[in-house]
Amino acid sequence: MSDSSLRLVWVYPDLLSTYGDQGNALVVERRAQQRRVPVTRVDVRSDQPIPTSGDIYLLGGGEDRPQRLAAERLRRDGGVNRAVANGAIVFSVCAGYQILGHEFVNDLGRPEPGLGLLDVVSTRGEGERCVGDVLADIDPRLGLPPLTGFENHQGVTHLGPSARPFAQVRVGRGNGTGDGTEGAFNDTVFGTYMHGPVMARNPHIADLLIKLALDVNALPPVDDQWYDALREERIAAAVQPA
Ligand code: GLN
């Protein structure tokens, strides 16, 4: 970063924004503001070039056809890959997560190349769609409390050797491979199947991204009362479905 402000890029709200995933951008923005970190949010539609000078890029979920269109445009644009090469942080959800991998199966049933930023490959699950509340334990090296989220996907994501599972599910399906893994990450690129929006249920993930972007070890505490109440409610729902 050239100064102390944070540049947040919300990628393709017109294609990748199902299940309120835009809430992730709102939460990151708000958590930065609460720490008096100046933050600029740029929403980049799919007919616009992706800026390469952002600090944090967020991608949401999408239906199958918009997902293919988004992948085509992101590959052609190349901006997210250039930003990551410059050290940017990327956090992606569901369709966005699949797009960051090497390949996924598109709406036409064909393999569609992704951006290759995560060492994962997604296929279409043969079984039932993965739908429901999830409770998972995030990789301990990230130092975060349990992950709560909502999943709704047909895709199954297989991790290669350089991708670490983001979490291990206690309840729910996550990557859908049957090995209990959920999501993936490497140094600065994260993917998850969790909607919610996931940052509203797990504000500490937003804080982690801000800390990575600012290269600081800690942030001043903020009032998490509202988030804690939501977490409690949704974790209870996952453990004991209605
Ligand atoms: N179309 C993808 C799947 O079903 C992603 C769905 C989503 O983003 N909710 O796997």
From TrEMBL:
<feature type="binding site">
    <location>
        <position position="129"/>
    </location>
    <ligand>
        <name>substrate</name>
    </ligand>
</feature>
<keyword id="KW-0808">Transferase</keyword>
<dbReference type="GO" id="GO:0140282">
    <property type="term" value="F:carbon-nitrogen ligase activity on lipid II"/>
</dbReference>
<keyword id="KW-0436">Ligase</keyword>
<dbReference type="GO" id="GO:0004359">
    <property type="term" value="F:glutaminase activity"/>
</dbReference>
<keyword id="KW-0315">Glutamine amidotransferase</keyword>
<dbReference type="GO" id="GO:0009236">
    <property type="term" value="P:cobalamin biosynthetic process"/>
</dbReference>
<keyword id="KW-0961">Cell wall biogenesis/degradation</keyword>
<comment type="subunit">
    <text>Forms a heterodimer with MurT.</text>
</comment>
<dbReference type="GO" id="GO:0008360">
    <property type="term" value="P:regulation of cell shape"/>
</dbReference>
<comment type="similarity">
    <text>Belongs to the CobB/CobQ family. GatD subfamily.</text>
</comment>
<dbReference type="InterPro" id="IPR033949">
    <property type="entry name" value="CobQ_GATase1"/>
</dbReference>
<dbReference type="InterPro" id="IPR011698">
    <property type="entry name" value="GATase_3"/>
</dbReference>
<protein>
    <recommendedName>
        <fullName>Lipid II isoglutaminyl synthase (glutamine-hydrolyzing) subunit GatD</fullName>
        <ecNumber>6.3.5.13</ecNumber>
        <ecNumber>3.5.1.2</ecNumber>
    </recommendedName>
</protein>
<dbReference type="Pfam" id="PF07685">
    <property type="entry name" value="GATase_3"/>
</dbReference>
<dbReference type="InterPro" id="IPR043702">
    <property type="entry name" value="Lipid_II_synth_GatD"/>
</dbReference>
<dbReference type="GO" id="GO:0071555">
    <property type="term" value="P:cell wall organization"/>
</dbReference>
<comment type="pathway">
    <text>Cell wall biogenesis; peptidoglycan biosynthesis.</text>
</comment>
<dbReference type="GO" id="GO:0009252">
    <property type="term" value="P:peptidoglycan biosynthetic process"/>
</dbReference>
<keyword id="KW-0378">Hydrolase</keyword>
<keyword id="KW-0573">Peptidoglycan synthesis</keyword>
<dbReference type="GO" id="GO:0016740">
    <property type="term" value="F:transferase activity"/>
</dbReference>
<keyword id="KW-0133">Cell shape</keyword>
<feature type="active site">
    <location>
        <position position="195"/>
    </location>
</feature>
<feature type="active site" description="Nucleophile">
    <location>
        <position position="94"/>
    </location>
</feature>
<dbReference type="InterPro" id="IPR029062">
    <property type="entry name" value="Class_I_gatase-like"/>
</dbReference>
<feature type="domain" description="CobB/CobQ-like glutamine amidotransferase">
    <location>
        <begin position="8"/>
        <end position="202"/>
    </location>
</feature>
<comment type="function">
    <text>The lipid II isoglutaminyl synthase complex catalyzes the formation of alpha-D-isoglutamine in the cell wall lipid II stem peptide. The GatD subunit catalyzes the hydrolysis of glutamine to glutamate and ammonia. The resulting ammonia molecule is channeled to the active site of MurT.</text>
</comment>
